Amino acid sequence: xxxxxxxxxxxxxxxxxxxxxxxxxxxxxxxxxxxxxxxxxxxxxxxxxxxxxxxxxxxxxxxxxxxxxxxxxxxxxxxxxxxxxxxxxxxxxxxxxxxxxxxxxxxxxxxxxxxxxxxxxxxxxxxxxxxxxxxxxxxxxxxxxxxxxxxxxxxxxxxxxxxxxxxxxxxxxxxxxxxxxxxxxxxxxxxxxxxxxxx
Length: 199
Hints:
The protein is an all-alpha fold and 199 residues long.
């Protein structure tokens, strides 16, 4: 029975070692790393709250509140989405996930320009959100460099002008989806950082 237990323990333990990879597994006891994770978990929560505030503004101002009612319109819009497959489940790879979070924050920082155009009366909130996204991306970049983690670069589409919305209504719907996508992205980023903090 003891032998069976040992085999099961190894089977359960091995995938996590594969997911963590080196050298991140060696950093699980690194105090600097855990301070970084704690600080940026709080920072991510702050960004999520600001995105939620903008989503409520879009809902209250334009009566665009339910994603399922707008899905058919999405296919007509050119809305960039940041890939996060390296931050999910068995595809989780810490260094690659950090890189995807960093690149995704840059994508949404740029996409928020469309939100700013639609909500000029709330420029302070949108610009603060863009600055926070840039700062979180920079935090991750510097921490990866400080800890000697590999920087994984993913091909991204060249950042051109803002999406060319064919109507003011499409601009409203596009803003709705930019914020909805950003919120999902932040949820995934938050779960990934929290998982690493609990190792």
